[in-house]
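Inverse folding, one chain.
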């Protein structure tokens, strides 16, 4: 047992963490942090709704070594519940399990009734149908002693005669079923033929059949989205999403690579986690339409390079450092059984090609869907996430890069941040005169100054701020003069508004006062500045390479890109200056690209040719990246003008540091000369200094 007086506990996937005295029940720790774990029996170990599991290993980013031994042994209550109701070996009842050491606690998806919303919906888009998988009804000649061909051979011959598939073969595992199916169907069968290269019979049913589905899956680092398509009509008939359970191994991609570096035998666990989530989504979408897993004959996957590798069971540690080598970059086609994917045993998997070491198949799918390579306009396509993927160009030339924005845009690294879930602040407006805020939260359409908000707020609460909310909050703080263009919260405004409060040697803005306060701190502002500067610097590098000073059109892809207001993204300096009317959210473009490749095999050839001609720019190796990054720390930018934005928004004039800030900095310098403080205060001091 750990002998420390308290233990550090991190809950996933919420990312909330805190220190608790040894002996604290896990359920109590969750409640103190605002992590929702359901319990309807009052902690008596009867309902079993509060189940959690321990993620074991070294989590370097969080400085936690987590072990199941850091909980007390199973209590009599848990043993009784396991005996009567069943309790998986890796599950604990959080009301009964007591903390004895540092832990990473995984709250299962089924227990997260207030869990994050998955906003990767299928975008409505007509796709011409020409699938790689075909259903063919075939009438086969009965056996004849004068023509001693095997049943399988006669099936292949009939398939060529009736459907024109010359040189077809039959998947080896299927051969044992051919005779039985032919006889049960009265020598009439339906076969599924995969036509990607050589025609191959991959499934067979007695008689006539007209049901065939395919799935398109976007494996994001935070969320996974699955779309079920009727392969005979091309329609998307069901969609579902879930949080990526790998988040317990690390919130961002490099944290997961670091986890593998610290735990070399951890690859199977990461792969099993993502495949298990996909299996659950397959059950969900097929169940929604009354279909069976065996009805799914094809699956197309997109994902960033690290998720691509982890899904395939490939170690991604080489992507953790230069030269960021991919194990495989080209498109892949293989039987679903090779990775144990629970669809029809003969079903086929297609993965889109990756563009570069940190620009993946998801970026390839998004580029295919939005088609900058098909037009004359210079189009900027950005998928904003923990690792931003950037594509810029037109039909003449197209470039791509990635930029390490980190998880701040997902609500992580923000003091009151959370993922998009009911109760999360998603919209913010600040009165420039009174500095009073208005907010909107997920789950309520009304603003906080409207009657409906007051009537319904008790149903969802105000629990934190999500990515779109923090973008708007900081942009509005800048527009109202609360923060300077350098990103410093103006402490002198505390005389004007009680919303400006001191937090040590810096200041914060109180965004919400209710059962608890939600503040935007100086460190929150800095985290967003760092994230947006990384993205903007990546964009500027591509503009330099293309030799342009402006872009014609901007498309924001991904779930996050769909919910941020383009105006606030530009005020912040997240994206370059552009006519706001030509900045649009395109939704889950990566998923759309996957569906295009699922429904029409011609798009597979197009995306493979497209990726071959995309010029890959490695931001880490570009000498001007740091220069662009430093300039982009300012709001909206230190050197780049935003004339088109200025036509739509009144941007504050640059101003000197206020007297209040200057006095605060003088006090700070005196403290520095007098000696250092704790590491946390030192971090605040560095933040303030960097804004000078």
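Residues assigned per position:
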């Amino acid at each position: 047992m750990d002998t420390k007086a308290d233990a550090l506990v991190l809950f996933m996937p919420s990312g909330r963490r805190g220190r608790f005295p040894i002996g604290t029940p896990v359920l109590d720790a969750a409640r103190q942090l605002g992590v929702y774990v359901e319990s309807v029996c009052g902690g008596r170990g009867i309902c079993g709704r509060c189940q959690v599991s321990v993620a074991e290993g070294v989590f370097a980013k969080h400085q936690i070594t987590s072990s199941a031994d850091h909980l007390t042994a199973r209590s009599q209550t848990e043993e009784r519940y396991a005996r009567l109701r069943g309790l998986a070996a890796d599950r604990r009842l959080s009301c009964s399990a007591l903390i004895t050491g540092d832990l990473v606690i995984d709250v299962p998806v089924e227990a997260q009734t207030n869990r994050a919303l998955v906003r990767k919906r299928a975008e409505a888009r007509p796709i011409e149908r020409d699938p790689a998988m075909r259903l063919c009804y075939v009438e086969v000649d009965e056996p004849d002693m004068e023509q001693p061909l095997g049943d399988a051979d006669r099936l292949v011959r009939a398939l060529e005669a009736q459907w024109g598939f010359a040189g077809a073969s039959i998947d080896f595992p299927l051969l044992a079923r051919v005779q039985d199916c032919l006889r049960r169907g009265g020598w009439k069968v339906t076969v599924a033929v995969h036509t990607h290269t050589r025609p191959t019979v991959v499934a067979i049913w007695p008689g006539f059949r007209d049901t065939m589905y395919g799935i398109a899956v976007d494996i994001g680092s935070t969320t996974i989205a699955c779309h079920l398509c009727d392969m005979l009509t091309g329609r998307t008939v069901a969609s579902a999403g879930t949080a990526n359970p790998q988040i317990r191994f690390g919130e961002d991609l490099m944290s997961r690579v670091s986890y593998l570096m610290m735990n070399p035998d951890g690859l199977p666990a990461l792969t099993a986690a993502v495949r298990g989530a996909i299996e659950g989504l397959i059950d969900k979408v097929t169940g929604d339409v009354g279909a069976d897993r065996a009805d799914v004959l094809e699956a197309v996957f997109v994902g960033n390079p690290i998720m691509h590798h982890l899904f395939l069971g490939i170690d991604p540690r080489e992507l953790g450092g230069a030269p960021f080598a991919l194990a495989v970059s080209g498109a892949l086609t293989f039987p679903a059984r090779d990775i144990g994917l629970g669809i029809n045993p003969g079903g086929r998997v297609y993965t889109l090609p990756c563009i570069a070491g940190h620009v993946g198949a998801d970026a390839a799918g998004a580029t295919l869907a939005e088609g900058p390579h098909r037009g004359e306009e210079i189009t900027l396509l950005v998928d904003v996430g923990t690792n931003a993927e950037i594509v810029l160009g037109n039909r003449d030339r197209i470039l791509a890069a990635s930029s390490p924005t980190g998880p701040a845009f997902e609500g992580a690294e923000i003091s009151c941040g959370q993922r998009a879930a009911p109760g999360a602040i998603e919209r913010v407006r600040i009165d420039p005169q009174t500095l009073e805020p208005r907010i909107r939260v997920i789950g309520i359409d009304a603003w906080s100054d409207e009657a409906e908000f007051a009537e319904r707020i008790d149903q969802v609460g105000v629990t934190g701020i999500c990515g779109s909310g923090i973008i708007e909050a900081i942009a509005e703080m800048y527009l109202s003069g609360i923060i300077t263009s350098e990103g410093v919260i103006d402490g002198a405004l505390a005389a004007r508004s009680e919303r400006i409060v001191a937090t040590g040697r810096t200041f914060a803005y109180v965004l919400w006062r209710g059962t608890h306060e939600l503040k935007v701190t100086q460190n929150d502002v800095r985290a967003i500045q760092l994230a947006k500067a990384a993205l903007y610097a990546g964009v500027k590098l591509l503009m330099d390479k293309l030799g342009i000073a402006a872009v014609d059109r901007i498309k924001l892809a991904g779930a996050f890109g769909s919910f941020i207001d383009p105006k606030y993204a530009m005020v912040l300096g997240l994206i370059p200056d552009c006519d706001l009317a030509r900045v649009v959210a395109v939704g889950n473009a990566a998923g759309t690209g996957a569906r295009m490749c699922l429904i029409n095999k011609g798009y597979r050839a197009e995306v493979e040719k497209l990726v071959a001609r995309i010029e890959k720019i490695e931001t880490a190796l570009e000498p001007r990246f740091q220069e662009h990054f430093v300039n982009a720390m300012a709001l909206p930018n230190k050197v780049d003008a935003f004339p088109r934005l200025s036509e739509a928004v009144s941007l504050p004039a640059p101003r000197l540091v206020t007297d209040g800030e200057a006095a605060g900095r003088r006090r700070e310098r005196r403290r520095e000369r007098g000696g250092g403080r704790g590491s946390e205060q030192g971090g605040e001091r560095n933040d303030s200094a960097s804004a000078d």
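Residues 6-111 form a domain with the Ubiquitin-like (UB roll) fold (CATH 3.10.20.30). The mean pLDDT is 88.
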